[in-house]
Amino acid sequence: MNGSVILQDLPWIAGIIGVTVLVSLAVVLVLRHRSLREERDNLRKADTEAALESADLQTLGFHLVERLGSASVRNYRADDEVRDDFDRAFGAVRSYLAEPEPEPESAAAPAPELGAIPAPNGGEEQASRTTPSPNDEALASHSLEVTQAEDNWTALAQARRDFELALAASLDLSIDDRRRASTSRLLAMAIDRGVLSKSLANRLQRSVSVASKAIHGEPVHAAEASESLVSLRAAIEELGASLSPVETKGRRKFEVVPASDGWKVIAPIGSAGIRLRSYPTQTEAASRAREFAYKSGGGEVVIHGRDGRIRNVDTVASSDPFPSRKEK
Amino acid sequence: MFRSQVTIAVIMRLVAADPAAAAAHLTKVYEWKYSEAITVAKALAGTGGALILALLVPALAPDTTAPLSVAGAIVVFASAAVAIGVGSLLFVWARRIHLEFLAAETLVGQIVEIRPFLKLYESTRS
């Protein structure tokens, strides 16, 4: 090929190059714009308020990881609304984890030997409702196995969370009030209202401090972790006994029950039923209960009437957005 | 720029598994994205430059038997301008990739704070 031929074809070659570059640029811009718009639409569909108000690990985690997590870093950098959504979600999660509680002065006890489970405190604990019983030995050995088999803080984080919810429910606090009050404040309120004795509250305060340390990655003795786990779970069981029981064999049950200020949803956490926030109407409470059941992996939503009788039972599957109805 | 975007859920899972590895992985990914963008930008700028040089051939070799027409010269010049322009645009986009990398690093720092929550969520899901 000589130079003359190349020169003759040069405009064609240059034209093809120019058109190809322009078309490629247009396609890339359109695809980028479309994907950004789809991401933003998906994020706007998410029920952010309900997820952030929920005290449920699965609901908050699903919202943060599955919903907000589908956004790209590019979208996060470019869109202020997306950054705001993430900041609020991170704030809700930090609130869920809570800050490490300062250890109470009166609860200072010598650190137990590694591998040994210390005997429960005697004397003033005897009259307490949650005085450790022989059943605690079985619970303690199981707890030690749990904390040794998996991360300490996994079990302790869940126990701390469940304990806070159980305590707030027994004090009949709303989610907002619970968020504003630290665990120390909740325990002080429990002492004032006679729900817990002062000595027991101090012991539980120490257990919560140990749980907070473990959650925040500070070293915790296995025995100290186990003792804290035993105390927290015993307290949850005891506090749960004063609430409406929720059967957990077979399907998980979410109950809508009448309350003095409207209607409440009782959701199963551990082996105790935990009341979530109040709703003004039965319809709204039932809708939220179905949402919690759906996001928690399915279950039954039992709707009670003002007379306490069961009015309706809905079965919610985790993958079926249209639950079947069973009239009773 | 042609590959799939880095999503925040991926960063969360990486941080939940190993924060140090997450930071290293993100650095590598964004290095690749940046070098890809710079390579394409250089290729386009080089192509535009080559087309401009090709326009100079008739001027430097006036004894050629097939001189370039005016219309042809305009087409070549326009294509060169497009190639160089898009190449320049890609250099600007490469800077945005760096800003995106900084945003990802910031996210890693925030996600490390809530790592216990993520591990708890993953453990209760499995």
Structure, described:
The complex is a heterodimer of chains A (328) and B (126). Chain A has 12 helices and 6 strands. With 328 residues, chain A is an alpha+beta fold. Chain B contains 4 helices and no strands. In chain B, helix 2 (19-60) runs antiparallel to helix 3 (70-113). Classes of the chains: A alpha+beta (328), B mainly alpha (126). Chains A and B meet through helix 1, helix 3, helix 4, helix 5 and helix 7 of A and helix 1, helix 2, helix 3 and helix 4 of B.
Which secondary structure elements does this structure contain, and how are they paired or packed?
The complex is a heterodimer of chains A (about 325) and B (about 130).
Chain A: H1 3-45, H2 48-53, H3 57-67, H4 73-78, H5 80-97, H6 135-149, H7 152-170, H8 175-180, H9 183-192, H10 198-215, H11 222-240, E1 253-259, E2 262-269, E3 272-279, H12 282-295, E4 298-304, E5 310-317, E6 324-327
Helix pairs in contact in A: 3-5, 6-11, 7-10, 7-11, 9-10, 10-11
Chain B: H1 8-17, H2 19-60, H3 70-113, H4 115-125
Number of distinct helices of chain B: 4
Global outline of chain B: rod-shaped
| Alpha carbon gap, first and last residue of chain A | 90 Å
Helix content of chain A: 55-70%
What is the end-to-end distance of chain B?
34 Å
Number of strands of chain A: 6
Q: What shape does the CA trace of chain A take?
A: elongated
Largest pleated sheet of chain A: 6 strands, mixed
Helix content class of chain B: over 70%
Helix/strand class of chain B: mainly alpha
Alpha carbon gyration radius of chain B: 24 Å
Q: Mean pLDDT of chain B, nearest integer? A: 85
Helix-strand category of chain A: alpha+beta
Low-confidence region ranges of chain A: 101-150, 241-250, 319-328
- The secondary-structure element order of chain B is HHHH
Question: In angstroms, what is the radius of gyration of chain A?
Answer: 27 Å
Provide a short characterization of the protein structure.
Chain A has 328 residues and is α+β, with helices and mostly antiparallel strands. Chain A is 56% helix and 13% strand. Chain B is 85% helix and 0% strand.
